[in-house]
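From the shared-data thread, chain only:
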Amino acid sequence: MTVALFVPCYIDQFYPHVAIATLQVLEKAGVTVVYPPKQTCCGQPMANSGFEHLTRGCNELFVKNFTGFDYIVCPSGSCALHVKQHLHDAENEKEAEHIRAHVYELTEFLTDIVQVEQWNARFPHKVGMHQSCHGQRGLALSHMSELVAEPFSKPGKLLSMVEGLEIVELSRTDECCGFGGTFCVAEEAVSVKMGKDRVNDHLSRGVEYIIGGDVSCLMHMDGILRRQKSKVQVKHIAEVLNSH
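Structure, as tokens:
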């Protein structure tokens, strides 16, 4: 299969090593990866701010860049969900429909499409897993605690295959970190308080790392950790799966 790698703006600009780790993880899984070099923003920031009607250019360019691939894989649940639910192109709607049906967040792709059952990686650390809202509630990457259902976690399944890694159980497994895209700008005080609560849940369990599938959430919590002068670090799950 041929997969197009979709790299969100903030990963491209601030965390390029996460994009590189994602590429290497996909290649490690035996996938042929192509990176469309002219890709830009998917339009999610505008849509989140109430300006989805202005994302036509983003949609058209996205369809142009990602048409013709078996799958599109993204190391971000929020961006993957936006494309899955909001991508439209009046002139090329058939292609847009194919993309919507074949765009996947990284851990979702590895568990559902590649169907990984074993993984060669080593990360001998005590970690907490942050379940980002878009991935959990939009893409169903893990169970929601308010539902009476069998617990599951696609990121957790992959992390359980990593040698030496210990996942701690948090007291509030699916609580929002407070980032919320433009919410952290419009409601700064509330966002920071939510972030502190989320970070403290991890710190109270003695973790060395906070692992997540969305760099935006990790970036928010990392800022809080740095201001607290904490030694705890954040890592994207692609980096952990790519560790040796």
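The chain has a mean pLDDT of 95.
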